[in-house]
Design goal:
- This protein has helices at 5-26, 35-49, 117-134, 143-156, 255-260; strands at 66-70, 73-75, 90-99, 102-111, 160-161, 167-169, 176-180, 197-200, 203-205, 211-213, 220-222, 228-230, 233-237, 242-244.
- With 265 residues, the chain is α+β, with helices and mostly antiparallel strands.
- The protein is globular.
Length: 265
């Protein structure tokens, strides 16, 4: 689980490149565009502009470079030409990138067009919950601290946290140890050590935390049909705290990054 300095440098480069994919999407009009068109645009950008590999394509038999999870889809939504984004939708794009043998993983939930206040609040709270988890990361902290901070923030705002899916260690493989749960008790679980790299990726639901998998065996939705939102970053434990390897351009002057004293990677 511990990455050496030369490995961390390679992971930071993969993270920087993946952040640039989201910077590109931030400038892309989404309304009226199909999720398959977004998938193809991202694939071209990763392979041609960044000279990298979309790590999700082909993994576990998956045929696309990203997951596109709209409204009540919690995660693993499959891009489709028939899924055309419309004003009022929220959509999470979960994207991975491999460069020089190392993988970065990140996701962002976008608001398409005119989104109602309730949906915006859910999206904002999911983003805040991710940063609450990130803020606990430092040597000597424990995995339970991360999940506790995430779920506490979600519950304080009236949302539930999905328990069925979690963050994970990452490096040469997409999914490595340890698992990073989005719920937990402070002071429990594995101690964090310098050189660990993992994702923090809370999924918050408007209603109950229960989910179901659709007939395609990929798409996971809320059981009650209410909205879900997710954010994800790949982070590394440093000597004094945390480095966010997938920090995006729009976050470099954010209150969250400033509060943690993050230096853009």
């Amino acid at each position: 689980m511990i990455k050496q300095p030369q490995e961390l440098a390679l992971m930071a480069e993969a993270g920087r490149l993946l952040a640039s994919v989201f910077d590109m999407l931030d400038k892309t009009p989404l309304e009226g565009v199909s999720t398959l068109e977004i998938n193809d645009k991202v694939e071209r950008f990763i392979t041609e502009d960044l000279q990298s590999r979309p790590a999700s394509k082909g993994q576990y038999g998956y045929c696309f470079v990203l997951n596109s999870s709209i409204n009540h889809v919690v995660c693993h939504g499959v891009p489709s030409q028939s899924d055309v984004l419309k004003s009022g939708d929220i959509v999470n794009f979960d994207i991975t990138l491999e460069k020089n043998g190392y993988i970065a993983d990140s996701s962002k939930t976008y608001c398409v067009g005119e989104v109602n206040a309730a949906a915006k609040r859910l999206v904002r709270t999911a983003y805040e919950a991710m940063w609450m988890g990130i803020a606990t990361v430092r040597p000597g902290a424990r995995i339970g601290d991360i999940g506790w901070a995430i779920e506490r923030h979600a519950k304080r705002n009236g949302y539930s946290v999905v328990h069925d899916y979690c963050g994970h260690g990452i490096g040469r493989e997409m999914h490595e140890e340890p698992q990073i749960l989005n719920f937990g008790k402070p002071g429990t679980g594995l101690f964090l050590q310098q050189g660990m790299v993992f994702t923090i990726e809370p999924m918050l639901n408007q209603g109950r935390r229960n989910v179901k998998t659709e007939a395609d065996e990929w798409t996971v939705t809320t059981k009650d049909g209410l909205l879900s939102a997710q954010f994800e970053h790949t982070v590394a434990v440093t000597a004094t705290g945390v480095s966010v390897l997938t920090l995006r351009a729009d976050e470099k002057n954010s209150p969250q990054a400033k509060r943690l004293g993050l230096i853009p990677v």
